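Researcher: Before we compare anything, I want clean individual predictions. No alignment, no superposition, just each chain on its own. First chain goes here; please echo the sequence and then give the structure tokens.
Model: Echoing the first chain and its structure:
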Amino acid sequence: MRIALLGYGKMGKAIEEIAIRRGHEIVLKINEENLGDFTKENAQRADVAIEFTSPHSAFENIRQTIGFGVPVVSGSTGWTERLEEMQTYCNEHNGTFLYASNFSVGVNIFFEVNKRLAALMAPRSEYEVTMEEIHHTQKKDAPSGTAITLAEQVLEFLPRKTQWVNKAAGAADQLAIISKRIDPAPGTHIVRYSSSIDDIEITHTAHNRQGFATGAVLAAEFIKNKKGIFSMKEVLGL
């Protein structure tokens, strides 16, 4: 498979390493230094594009790639208030798009555990739920996209919480997400249910970027030659 990398920072380099190890070819690498190379002709050399850029440029990068007729896997966070708009654009242009706030196989299993735990805790009003996420200091958005996904799952299954806030909760219906930036942490997410009797806690801790990179390449392999909107649930059969 021929892959275009949109974003060639630490994550892009990790994806390149995994992709080559799995027998794929990187035919295009785009970063801030060679934006002029991001053309339709160059992009169409690839079977799939994998996009890890920044919150301010992700939407346009994805839109342009779909417009070029190239399937896109995106893991950029901090722009997802426009995700539905992008999905509509993709469908209107008969494109292929897969977005995940986190490509790690472990995190996507963690998502399923989080939903199940929230459903079990729904009738247990004596437990207060809070969340914490820890990342390295270079991470540009807070809370993380993974934390937002976890929080929205809790809101879906726990009716007593109606909104998440990126601070200590100021009202009973708020779900607090506490964000910490500590080097060299690649990513830890904690969902905690606390009562006067005990605590129930689930935690995912990433040790490096390899899990994210591997998942992104698996997603690219999955969407090649497909049309439509996909997620990691389809990739992993969850």
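Researcher: Okay. Second chain, same rules.
Model: Second chain and its structure:
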Amino acid sequence: MARYLVAVCAAVAMMLTGCTTVVTGTPVPDPELRVPLTSQLAFGDLTTIDYCSLLDIESLGDAGVRGIGATTSTFNYCFAKGSLGERAVEFGLGYLESHADQGQRVRDTTRTLKRNLTAQRSVANDDRSCTMYLLFPDMASLQVYTDDTGVTAGGSADELCEVAGSVLDGMVTVLLAKKVGHLTFPAGSAGTVDACQLLPQEQVAAYFGQQPMRTPEIPTRHRCRWLDPLTRDSVNVQFDGGKAPSGGLETIAGRPTEVAGVGAGYCRASTAVGSPAASGDSTLAQVYYFARAGRDACQAVRDLATAAWPKLPSS
């Protein structure tokens, strides 16, 4: 009778614990591995991600990248440059987005990732550029890219995608090991500013003449994109890193501003925010306008920068 009761208790205990037993000397399964890794679990504070903490330079050796330079960190991405055989390449990662358009992506069936993570490839990859994505189960995604920065293409798309794949694999390793770094923004830093508040929806609506669409969702707050649902014109507001604009500047809302056309119907306004870093790079506030309906894109960015710049930190 006693043996029977012991057996019943043991059976009940197994049911209550999910029918698992721990055998001395064997590794205990990590229950966290069964939990889908959402972007919130992976990063915690989505507004202070240090993207360079995700870039595993050592993982690129097997992909043939040599002569890797220093990494460049911005609020939105991290990148570095090197050589791939005779090709000059740039590779990087970042641009966390939520519920982005999946139409130009396909699943990378060569990679099976843990915790419901999914690797994707762009359908537009060619011999100059390869873009991949890491999709989280909550439909947030990170972008990984490798670009041939030479004057002419010198190799195949597969070579570039092998580098991008190595960057993605290294990033996944960092995420699963919980080694994500975070930036610290002092009071008054542009890092504390929500880019969407530089051009609130009502101001963009007044400019477009109808209610705009904000697409995609960008949880980091350092970028914002508005789309005119009728004309398909778009406005992008973001913080980036680079050399402070100099030479031929305009004054917009009291700030020295570079206004530059960057292609047909496409124009950008840039102004430096705060003091330059030790590297000489500055934080740049930027407004881009892409005109599809014949509007003067550079006049558009002047008008929008006039509305946005007064909301920037003064120092």
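Researcher: What stands out in the second chain?
Model: Residues 157-176 form the longest helix (20 residues). Additionally, The first strand starts at residue 49 and ends at 50.
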